[in-house]
């Protein structure tokens, strides 16, 4: 039975130049496709067409060879880059998981906010640049030497294989801390550069701010009210009275809601003043209700806001 085979070879070789770079999954695309024409199309073709078809194909491939060769080299390089990035990411995750237990996850996640949360959109100062390692003696960073030391050990192991910046290390560590405690799996982009000096002081929100002060503070970092509420859900970890201290779930929102509904105001024993302030604000309360009712939507929004947070003010290595 006559058959005609048309081979379509499609090569797409792309490396990203936009910043932040796409996550490892999508930083390069390589497609090979071999399509067989359906039998009905094959039967409709004459023998001559088939010969011309094959000759045409050989001719096309020969003519395209000089083009295909550089493409194939480019494809090899892109594949190697993706593999190397993937391996690099895996090494970092592996070393982090060796040192970050559930009990240490809260402090590690807090370290992320204290590095990234200095970002100021107007002058592009601060942000996720590893500068928190120079700021550990500031009063607002009390207690963060412990997670720093834990990660320092993991970082030296990673550096022995492939150099990693503090900013990348902290960004991945926070994501792993969330996941270790049962929260969403978050993949962050790699390639942040470290600052060589501390960020300007006084840029993190004070815990005594009311809701409008918190919203304003987050706005200066390019973060919305919804992102403020979702990210504050990180306080579900730790000992502030929001369920199990080592489980990342939506109990932060459930407790905020229950306490503010049952007594009209929250017990001063639960949460920080800033947590209680969110529950008194109508706009924040709408998000609190949504996340208390629907853990998946909290996880989805937390993941997006977390990725935005760890990209705030980051400067990226060029590929
Ligand atoms: C909304 C503004 C925020 C304020 C005012 C604030 C302030 C604080 C304060 C005062 C503590 C207690 C530290 C201690 O126990 O001594 C704390 C704990 C914590 N914060 Fe925040 N925070 C805020 C947002 C965030 C964000 C956005 C994250 C991460 C995405 C975060 C993560 C954490 C975690 C995980 C803890 C528990 C740390 C532990 O138990 O070791 N915070 N925060």
From TrEMBL:
What family does the Swiss-Prot or TrEMBL record give for this protein? Belongs to the peroxidase family. Ascorbate peroxidase subfamily.
Q: Per the database record, which ranges form the Plant heme peroxidase family profile domain? A: 105-319
Return the PROSITE patterns for the record: PEROXIDASE_1, PEROXIDASE_2, PEROXIDASE_4
SUPFAM superfamilies assigned: Heme-dependent peroxidases
Q: Give the UniProt keywords, A-Z.
A: Heme, Iron, Metal-binding, Oxidoreductase, Peroxidase
Organism equals Rubus argutus (Southern blackberry)
Q: Which domain of life is it from?
A: Eukaryota
Name of the protein in its database record? L-ascorbate peroxidase
A single Gene Ontology biological process assigned to it is: hydrogen peroxide catabolic process
GO molecular function list: heme binding; L-ascorbate peroxidase activity; metal ion binding
Pfam families, per the entry = peroxidase
Which cofactor does this sequence's record say it needs?
heme b
Report the top EC class in one word.
oxidoreductase
**The protein's Enzyme Commission number:** 1.11.1.11
